[in-house]
Amino acid sequence: MAGHAELSIESLPSAPAGTPLYVHLPFCVFKCHYCDFYSIPAEGQDIPGFLATLEQEIAARAPQSPTTVFFGGGTPSLLSIEQWQRLMAVLEEHTGFRSSAQEITVECNPESLDENKARALLDLGVTRLSIGLQSLRAQTLQQFGRVHSANEALEAFRAARRAGCRSINLDVIFANPGQTAAQWRVDLERILEEGPDHLAAYNLTFEEATPFLRWLEQGKLQALPEELELELAEITRELTTAAGLRPYEISNFARDGHACHHNINYWHNGPYAGLGPSAVSKIGNRRGGSARSLPLYQKRMAQRGHALDWSETLDAQARLAETWWLGLRLTEGLSAREARERAGFQDPTDPAVPVAERLVQAGWLQRAGERFQLTTKGLPLADAIASEFFSTLVPEGTANPT
Ligand code: SF4
User: Ligand 1: residues whose CB is within 6 Å?
Assistant: First the structure.
């Protein structure tokens, strides 16, 4: 992403009615060792003060009638029931989301989700709970720095079901240091036995400024060999499919009717509005993000009435490259015509088609009618495939900071 500049709110157009809405709630009990999301330990933080600021931002920037709402973090389930009631009332007052949103997701962690909390969230209109389970293996949870046990994770899932939640995602991570194929098979089988409606299974990555990257660099942790990572990904596809969860995106698996609409909009490169610290918005050919620091977010809101920290303009070629990169992550793939429509690309010559054809020749993509899809060979090469599109379509970078 391009560099960031000091900006006014005019740098991002307001989100039109119907724009999907993301709300970032940054507090967690403890920072996990692999995590690079903007999240901070809740202890000692002024959560009511943050929520008051978020209410101001909702009043100023939330789109009318969003088609989906996603509360992410951080650990949104850390908020009390009373805090949720107020937040949802304010959001309803300014957006009318209860009658417009086909899907309302709240991310939860086991240590802060019980039956009462789950029922309260459902009563407030939430349709989907996404639980950060990660693993049911005690040693893995400890290595990750998770604050919950496997039993607490199972209890949170079951509590959500007892409360009446009919759409539950479980987040899991594989390819952590030391993991064997046999361990992952046992762990994932156990997780799938619970019967989640959706599974998001991510291959661990070592992110900047995390303890995991530091320990890797110090030789205290070793990344798995690539062949083993591929085997673990293959086990994930095999077991989820056997459990009735269809792979619809590289890392996401769902029962029929349970694919995440909010995230599909990202993969379709659709518009979205983001509120809260670090949240990103994309409206038309503009993208911008809020300050990735709670004090700075609050200062910006107090001084300027918005928390925008950076923004950039995406030209037509960059939008087209991003649309291919995102769209190919979906199992259904995309056609050149869909890519042009989603990107708003109007030039008569489509520079992405020769790239896609070349990748078909290489065996990384296949044709299904008009659509291009990743092949089994191309599946683990999504990043390399993305760089083929970017290096051809936008050799000088993806965006212009303004
Ligand atoms: S609970 Fe989630 S958001 Fe919070 S630190 Fe852990 S991985 Fe990051």
Answer: 28, 31-32, 35, 37, 39, 73-75, 109, 132
